């Protein structure tokens, strides 16, 4: 569900609150190729396998899938996939996607520039979230992501994309940051630094999940996570002020409330589930409203659950796979397995189909944020903050 920005959006939002659960999000690993060595990666043992689906196989998947709203691409590094813009256009034409989530490490500036330019041109009604991965200040980021000078290179790519495409309202340029034991103490400084640079639309924080290459990075407890979240919320509020500054005051309050309330709600679930599974305020809709296709054609209900079948066995017919006995059994297993996690993509996808969350939990979370005022972080500290430079 897109953040409402206009009166028309508000009407669409209201109509969508009580819609039945339906397939809406496809998570497609377009390649296993990657030019990073991220210690946070939950997919590290599947990388660079040389088993990527062919364009023709992906075309069959798109042609046989039902219409859906959002395509989430993943990898590997998605921009290492040849014909990436053509793959995106396939789903735009065949499945009528209107939202694209596109993560990147920012190390392929020419390819990113080319793909974004083509997609903006060929998919005129598509909203794009281009999400740059930055997991700390210079040395910390490079150590976590395993690439020398990654921090400098990614910032340079972000500057290039802002300069060329910053005027496109359909392109949101975000930073995604994984919270780990190693970067915990500098994430506020990172957030302030990115606010100071002012070349992003927003920054979002995800606690490390799954089975990463370096398990020591997961050593974060609930109390620590909550303390960090309380200090990060003013940074989100500053981004929200910028994001909706062009809206009339009469409607500006609603998207700000929805965005900050949603972030606070996500944070609460992260805190509750970081040490052990705790039941969400809504049912998980994995396998019903969303599905995952791995680079090699295996499919799953969720990124952090095992594969349940191969699309090859269904001749790459996506509708048949979605309606298969394997998927029906997996959906049942999820409800029986106490499978509650910190994965924001599935929190977001599930909450869109919960009237209780949309009508009550999100506004209440926003009110709690406004009332608590736990963080004493003053964003005027930006004035005393100097740009961190790599020392290696």
Structure description:
This protein has a single domain (7-379), classed as TIM Barrel (Alpha-Beta Barrel). The chain has 13 helices and 9 strands. It has helices at 7-16, 55-64, 84-95, 109-122, 138-145, 150-165, 187-197, 222-243, 249-273, 318-322, 325-336, 344-351, 355-372; strands at 25-29, 70-74, 99-104, 127-133, 171-179, 202-207, 290-293, 298-300, 309-310. Helix 7 (187-197) links the parallel strand 5 and strand 6 (202-207). Helix 4 packs parallel to helix 6 and helix 9 packs across helix 13 (355-372). The longest helix has 25 residues, at 249-273. It is globular, with a radius of gyration of 20 Å.
Q: What is the CATH topology assignment?
A: TIM Barrel
Supply the CATH class.
Alpha Beta
Percent helix, as a range, is 40-55%
SSE topology string: HEHEHEHEHHEHEHHEEEHHHH
**Structural domain count:** 1
Q: How is the main sheet built?
A: 9 strands, mixed
**What share of the residues does DSSP label as strand, in percent?**
5-15%
Structural class: alpha/beta
Task: List the topology elements.
Layout: H1 7-16, E1 25-29, H2 55-64, E2 70-74, H3 84-95, E3 99-104, H4 109-122, E4 127-133, H5 138-145, H6 150-165, E5 171-179, H7 187-197, E6 202-207, H8 222-243, H9 249-273, E7 290-293, E8 298-300, E9 309-310, H10 318-322, H11 325-336, H12 344-351, H13 355-372
Parallel strand pairs: 1-2, 1-7, 2-3, 3-4, 4-5, 5-6
Antiparallel strand pairs: 7-8, 8-9
């Amino acid at each position: 569900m897109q953040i409402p920005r206009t009166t028309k959006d508000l009407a669409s939002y209201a109509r969508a609150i009580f819609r039945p659960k339906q397939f809406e999000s496809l998570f497609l690993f377009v390649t296993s190729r990657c030019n990073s060595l991220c210690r946070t990666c939950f997919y590290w043992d599947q990388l660079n396998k040389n088993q990527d689906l062919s364009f023709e196989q992906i075309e069959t998947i798109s042609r046989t899938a039902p219409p859906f709203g959002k395509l989430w691409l993943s990898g590997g590094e998605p921009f290492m996939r040849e014909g990436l813009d053509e793959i995106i256009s396939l789903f735009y034409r065949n499945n009528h996607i209107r939202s694209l989530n596109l993560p990147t490490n920012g190390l392929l500036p020419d390819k990113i520039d080319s793909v974004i330019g083509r997609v903006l041109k060929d998919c005129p009604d598509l909203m794009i979230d281009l999400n740059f991965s930055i997991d700390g200040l210079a040395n910390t980021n490079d150590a976590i992501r395993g690439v020398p000078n990654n921090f400098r290179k990614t910032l340079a790519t972000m500057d290039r994309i802002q300069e060329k495409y910053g005027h496109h309202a359909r392109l949101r340029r975000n930073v995604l940051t994984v919270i780990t034991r190693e970067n915990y103490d500098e994430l506020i400084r990172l957030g302030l630094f990115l606010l100071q640079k002012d070349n992003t639309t927003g920054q979002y924080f995800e606690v490390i999940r799954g089975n990463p290459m370096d398990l020591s990075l997961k050593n974060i407890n609930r109390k620590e996570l909550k303390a960090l979240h309380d200090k990060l919320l003013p940074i989100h509020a500053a981004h929200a002020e910028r994001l909706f500054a062009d809206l009339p005051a009469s409607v500006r309050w609603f998207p700000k409330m929805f965005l900050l309330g949603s972030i606070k709600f996500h944070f609460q679930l992260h805190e509750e589930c970081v040490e052990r599974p705790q039941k969400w305020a809504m049912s998980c809709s994995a396998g019903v409203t969303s599905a995952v296709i791995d680079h090699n054609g295996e499919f799953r209900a969720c990124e952090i659950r095992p594969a349940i079948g191969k699309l090859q066995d269904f001749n790459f017919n996506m509708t048949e796979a979605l309606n298969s006995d394997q998927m029906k059994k997996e959906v049942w297993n999820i409800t029986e397995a106490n499978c509650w996690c910190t994965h924001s993509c599935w929190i977001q996808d599930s909450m869109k189909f919960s009237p209780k969350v949309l009508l009550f939990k999100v506004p209440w979370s926003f009110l709690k944020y406004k009332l608590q005022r736990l963080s004493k972080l003053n964003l005027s500290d930006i004035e005393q903050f100097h740009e961190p430079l790599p020392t290696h």
